[in-house]
Design a protein that fits this description.
Bound molecules: adenosine monophosphate, zinc ion
Radius of gyration: 14 Å
Largest sheet: 5 strands, antiparallel
Number of helices: 2
Distance between the termini: 33 Å
Structural class: alpha+beta
Order of helices and strands: HEEEHEE
Strand content: 15-25%
Helix content: 10-25%
Strand order of the largest sheet: 1-2-3-5-4
Amino acid sequence: MDCLFCKIIAGEIPSTKVYEDENVFCFKDIAPIAPVHYLIVPKEHISGADMINGENSHYIAKIFEAAAKIAKNEGIESFRIINNCGDDAGQTVKHIHFHLVAGVKMGWGPESLGKTE
Ligand code: AMP
Ligand code: ZN
């Protein structure tokens, strides 16, 4: 399958790995929007949050378990996890991924959507 994140997980495309276990892979985002910006992905190809079902939802729990471990390992006390699903939400890679961002005081509210129109 021609999927960028499947290739990163397989080591066919280089990445800066932060964490890996049997279900999950975590690497640094190539274009960080915050001092800490990691991507956490399941090792199984799931195209987006709209494809989560009873068969694969355990991967989401594993992703959040990994996020807690990663935060502890890296001494991150406060973080935000973001998932973009679909084109209007800004999903550019169709392998479900969770952005873990930290290291900056973050705003919250309508402006945080970064609306483009
Ligand atoms: P999204 O826009 O939610 O689909 O997020 C995709 C993310 O993947 C963006 O933040 C990109 O900067 C990031 N990205 C794209 N290509 C790479 C790559 N080769 N290595 C690491 N991160 C990447
Ligand atoms: Zn994939």
